Amino acid sequence: MPYPQSAKFQQAPLAFYETAEAELARVRSLRIEDPIAWQDAVNTSNALVDAVKENDLEELRRVMANADEGELIQAFVVQAFVLALKATSLEIVEQLVKWGLPLGDEQLAQGLHLVCELTGRENFSNAWRILQLLVEGNSEGKMDLNAPRSMDGWTPLCIACANACLPLVFKLLELGADPNVITRVNDTPVSLAKRKLPDDTEEQSEARGIIASMLREYGGQEQWKEALLFARRPRTVHVKPSKAELEDGSELASMPVAAQPVSATHTNYRG
């Protein structure tokens, strides 16, 4: 490869050391000047993606142990990360984060939104822990829990409220989600939670009122003008729902609602 392994690469092999444009230029040049090195980079990057796709943590570690600096192409790293999120694979995501995945990079900006879109009864235990990992971050940065999606201004909390996923709403609020964000069409988490949808289940319908009350306990306002006024005020003591300290799927069963599977989601993630 064009440069030897540095101390930083050994500590954070998945960190991005150059811009996407600079990397593309380097890889194109490498293909012409050193086809063998170029093929090594492609093979290593593909192996990374394949290991994540197969949820094979042992193989993933082997690939990373044998990787040289410059061989892990950013587009493949991003693809591997998205695959891990879609599978809500806690162990894989945790390992990627430990290897210095640059969570603050724009290419990964909608990771939290994607996890919230996919959160349901079966994967809740892994999903909220993944959210926590991404928000806490690593040496290369962290994800902003209140970052709006460019297409609609929705934050992860907006998704959870629209899907009437009570336990997810609670976890997001505990992680620091802003209950007074305002979307591009002037919706708020409270207004999204209260908005019943044609395909709501009985559990979701029941949860909407509970979620709205919970948001208000955190200072959430329904109308955007009031939300704007309250947005920066300090928060006070919060009321927690019954068995709110959810740690696994069995405890989730006692909650009055769970999110619908991704096929029934009410938002439109375009990752």
UniProtKB/TrEMBL annotation:
<keyword id="KW-0040">ANK repeat</keyword>
<protein>
    <submittedName>
        <fullName>Uncharacterized protein</fullName>
    </submittedName>
</protein>
<dbReference type="InterPro" id="IPR036770">
    <property type="entry name" value="Ankyrin_rpt-contain_sf"/>
</dbReference>
<dbReference type="Pfam" id="PF00023">
    <property type="entry name" value="Ank"/>
</dbReference>
<feature type="repeat" description="ANK">
    <location>
        <begin position="152"/>
        <end position="184"/>
    </location>
</feature>
<dbReference type="InterPro" id="IPR002110">
    <property type="entry name" value="Ankyrin_rpt"/>
</dbReference>
